[in-house]
Structure formats: C-alpha cells, structure tokens
Design a protein that fits this description.
CATH class of the largest domain: Alpha Beta
Pfam families: rve
Largest sheet: 5 strands, mixed
GO biological process, one term: DNA integration
Strand content: 5-15%
Organism: Sulfuriferula nivalis
Number of helices: 12
Order of helices and strands: HHHHHHEEEHEHHEHHH
Strand order of the largest sheet: 3-2-1-4-5
Protein name: Integrase catalytic domain-containing protein
Distance between the termini: 53 Å
GO molecular function, one term: nucleic acid binding
Number of domains: 3
Helix content: 40-55%
Structural class: alpha/beta
CATH architecture of the largest domain: 2-Layer Sandwich
Shape: elongated
Amino acid sequence: MVKPSLRREMAVLVVQTRQISISTACAAFNISETCYRYQAKLSSENALIADWLIRLTTNQRNWGFGLCYFYLRNTKQFRWNHKRVYRIYRELELNLRIKPRRRLVREKPEALAVPTQINEVWSMDFMHDQLADGRCIRLFNVIDDFNREGLCIDVDFSLPSERVIRSLEQIIEWRGVPKVIRCDNGPEYISNMTKEWAEQRGIKLDFIQPGNPQQNAYIERYNRTVRYDWLAHYLFDTVEEVQNFATAWLWTYNNERPNTAIGGIPPKHKLAMAA
C-alpha cells in the first residue's frame, strides 16, 4: 500500500510532466487537493532533534528509540513529544533491526522479588573477555537490585575468593551492608572463605539453582548492557585500560544512562527519589 506522501509526489510529477489538471491527478491517485497543496512547515527544533538522535545512535550503537527518548526527556530535560521524536527517528532510518528468535516452550521461572529499599538485595556475577593479544580477562560485577545501580566493576586476569571479598568490603565501606547477595554457584562464591565472611557480616548468600540463570536476571541483564554498550566495541591492550574505561562508563551508567526497567531514569535518580 502506497503512503499518501508518496501518492502526493506522484501526483505532482504527473501534473508537471503530463500537463493534466490538479483535480484529475488527485482523483487518479486518491488524494485530496488539500493534501496536494500542503507545504510542510519546517522547524529549527526538528533539526536539533535529528542532530541529537544521530549523535546518540552514533555513540551508542545499541540504543533503540526508547533509550534515546528517555535520555533526551529525563536526562537532558527536553520536552519534545515522543511521537514527534519517533517520526524523525524513523525518517532518519535509525531504527534497529530486531532479529526474530525461535520461541521455545519452557517452564515459567519463579518471579524475582522486587526489592523495596536500598541494600535489600545485591546481585553479583562474572564476565569473561579477551585483550587484543588474546589473553583472557574477567570482570566482577555487582549491582543493587533496588535501583539497578552498578556498585563496582573489577577487572583482572584472575579474581579468586579473596578478591571477591575485598571488592565487596570496599563497596560496604561507602554503601552499607546488604541483607542478601544473590549469585550463581561459581567456585568463588561457594568457597568456605566466602561463606565464613558472609556469616561474620550477617549477610545471606542466595544461590540460584544450577542451570537457571534467569533466577539471577537483574545482573544478567546488566551484564548484557556492559557487553553491548562498550565491552564488545573496543579492543584493549592492558587490564588497566579496561579498568579505567569500566570506571568511567559506570559513572555514566549510574548518573546519565536511562534504565527502562525503572521507568526510563538513571539509577541515581531513583535513589534520590527514594531518599
């Protein structure tokens, strides 16, 4: 089905080349004469919106319309209507291609509890990647499930139980002690050293069932954001480069990047609203 804007263009072309009347051309292409004579009113704001969208999608290639709109609305405080922004977004052909997935019939997992206050539940997990020379590195991620705030990203070639405990202690110094920490069954978490430390601190370690990563969905979704926002975009030569980039990105994630899971605002904004 041909859109009215294209039918209008065809009618204009026919009038100019075939020398027929406007009314005849409009009748032939099923458009009104008002549509034929309409002249779009250009707005300088449209150019500004287009410039912002192009810059956002260039710097954040995995951001779709939702994140772009929330960033402009909630972080930059622009009051543009979402329909207007979406129209320009589509005209610029910035929309991401959604890869269809095969739907597998699975048992419905137990719903995750939604924390109602800060430090009620933390989640922690590891990620793996490689440097430019092929050496493997690990990333230790911790978030607060209440506002999805990233609490740390530690990077090294090896992160045993001692490093995990040291990282958690550093977070506790400025954040406070959590009631529960959710994690998988990795050797660093199930070790006696980690269990003894948690008992001394009065922290419950909530282990998910083996083979059910959806039970740790908050940190798994966060890991995906880490990988597709920056980790998969660059080649790093040293662990120090990865750590410095991760630290800078973590500040942007917590303070500026909209999070659709908490209403399109950055994690720090939700924390301020709950204070």
